[in-house]
Amino acid sequence: MDILMESWLFLLLVLAIALFGKNMSLIIAAVTVMVIKALPFATKWLPTIQSKGINWGVTIISIAILVPIATGEIKFRDLVSVFKSPAGWIAIACGVAVAVLSRYGVDQLSASPQVTVALVFGTICGVVFLRGVAAGPVIASGMTYCIVSLLGLSFK
């Protein structure tokens, strides 16, 4: 099968799975990649998106995380109170763990690009069939939730 046709079929399969799972993020991602792929400058844009996209995504997530500070919803006293509870320390530790693991993950992807196939498949399955979300800070939050719940702690 022609490699160009195979990539289109693979993207259509991802889109079909996303539609079946009613996952809007993955639907938007698949359609966006397909639209860019159809454009004449795709050969320049796709490698740039591949190499810089994770950093752009982290930047967008970071912006979203900082918005409650900008709106005044989160204040310095909230930051101070985090250090006063075991649940707060667990959240800090999970955030650090995810950041460090992500660094090694990026290194792993660079060293073994074939791992990307398994990661993409696993992420798609987790997002579509288990209603997961593909995002680092959200993973840290989920880890925190699990540990805090297991220990019967709260943030107060």
UniProtKB/TrEMBL annotation:
Keyword Transmembrane helix applies: yes
Keyword set, alphabetical order: Cell membrane, Membrane, Transmembrane, Transmembrane helix
Keyword Transmembrane: yes
GO CC annotation: plasma membrane
Name the UniProt record assigns to this protein: UPF0756 membrane protein IV66_GL000154
Localization annotation: Cell membrane
Membrane topology: Multi-pass membrane protein
Lineage: Bacteria, Bacillati, Bacillota, Bacilli, Lactobacillales
Family statement drawn from the similarity comment of this UniProt entry: Belongs to the UPF0756 family.
PANTHER family registered for this protein in UniProt: UPF0756 MEMBRANE PROTEIN YEAL
Chain segments annotated as transmembrane: 53-74, 86-105, 111-130
Main subcellular location: membrane
Pfam families: DUF441 (PF04284)
